[in-house]
Specification:
Carbamate kinase, alpha+beta, 336 residues, Alpha-Beta Plaits, globular, 4-stranded mixed β-sheet, 4 domains
Length: 336
């Protein structure tokens, strides 16, 4: 209830401001607007949207302001959606209302190939696929929320990521923002972005995997990049979704003793692009580059759209800069 208070205050104030400008606005909380979630209070997932009240007010010609980042569980408890939850709210509601597109406006004019504060040469990306955007978000880029993109993908809704102060979308919306849609016009294997997440820890356990995962579920710990081989479990955990680290450490120690440990001081650095791992060329190039820079990766993981290297946390920015220069700044356009 307390975590969702800020959005409730903001939605009411925005409605008041719209009324002062002559508009007819009404504000709804997540529960009032029909956003039904599971029962994970601080990182809930939307399972259904029932926008009946929103549709009724739109039919009456009203401007509907909906509080982002929150919903109501099937047990009728207030829940919050975690980081990027306002994006998720917007796209989920757009999908429920059968909208053609959803605009996400912020203080930046789109999605960049890297954090411009780390890489001054970072470029705004005109068009991204749903999958590339999801991978960028999962890799730590402060872009659109991964669950929000999943909603858009299921319904075929385009997302326009633009600056709040920018102009309205023109004939080519990607000219002044980033459009997220299916199949952008790009050669497979092209790296579109480099992202990083510094505040992570690595769980390593030599115990029965089902027992380790059961403990994580008991503690509501959402891991990423899970690898299980025989009785060895390797998992990267984002501290952003870890709400009681001492409790987790105590639980691992009491149940598994020296068989489980949490490794700190590392960061995840990722290169993202469709078809990035069609061959091992990108994996080899990135790994060789990091080794030449003296940033030896301790772990590596891949997917169809991402290569992630675990590097020393104090070398994160250097790794991002090197990979961005190698994969993006130095690449020449491919001629047909």
């Amino acid at each position: 209830m307390l975590l969702s208070a800020g959005e409730r205050i903001s939605m009411a104030l925005l409605s008041l401001a719209i009324h002062e400008l002559g508009g007819n606005a009404i504000s709804f909380t997540g529960s009032q607007s029909g956003i039904i979630t599971n029962d994970r209070h601080v990182d809930a997932r939307i399972i259904e949207v029932r926008p009946f009240r929103v549709q009724d007010e739109l039919a009456r010609g009203k401007i509907v302001v909906i509080a982002g980042y929150q919903g109501v569980s099937y047990r009728r408890e207030v829940t919050t959606l975690g980081r990027g939850g306002s994006d998720t709210t917007a796209v989920a509601m757009a999908a429920a209302l059968d909208a053609e597109y959803c605009e996400i406006c912020s203080d930046v004019d789109g999605v960049y190939s890297a954090d411009p504060r780390v890489v001054p040469a970072a470029r705004r990306i005109g068009t991204l696929s749903y999958e590339e955007t999801q991978e960028m978000a999962e890799a730590g880029a402060k872009v659109l929320n991964a669950q929000a993109v999943e909603f858009a993908k299921e319904k075929g809704i385009a997302i326009y990521a633009r600056a709040t102060s920018g102009p309205l979308p023109g004939v080519d919306p990607s000219a002044d923002g980033t459009v997220v849609r299916k199949s952008p016009p790009r050669m497979p294997g092209t790296v579109v972005g480099v992202a990083s997440e510094k505040d992570v820890i690595v769980l390593q356990a030599e115990a029965k995997p089902s027992d380790v995962l059961a403990l994580l579920d008991e503690r509501s710990v959402a891991g990423k990049q899970l690898h299980v081989f025989d009785k060895r479990v390797d998992m990267v955990i984002s501290r952003e979704n870890l709400h009681d680290e001492p409790h987790l450490r105590a639980g691992l120690q009491s149940r598994f003793g020296g068989q489980a440990r949490l490794i700190d001081g590392v960061a995840a650095v990722s290169a993202v692009g469709a078809g990035i791992n069609a061959s091992y060329a990108n994996v080899r190039a990135g790994t060789t580059l990091l080794e030449e820079k003296g940033i030896a990766p301790s772990m590596m993981a891949t997917s169809s759209f991402r290569i992630t290297w675990m590097v020393p946390r104090d070398r994160t920015n250097e790794a991002v800069q090197a990979l961005h220069h190698r994969f993006i700044e130095s690449q020449q356009p491919l001629l047909p």
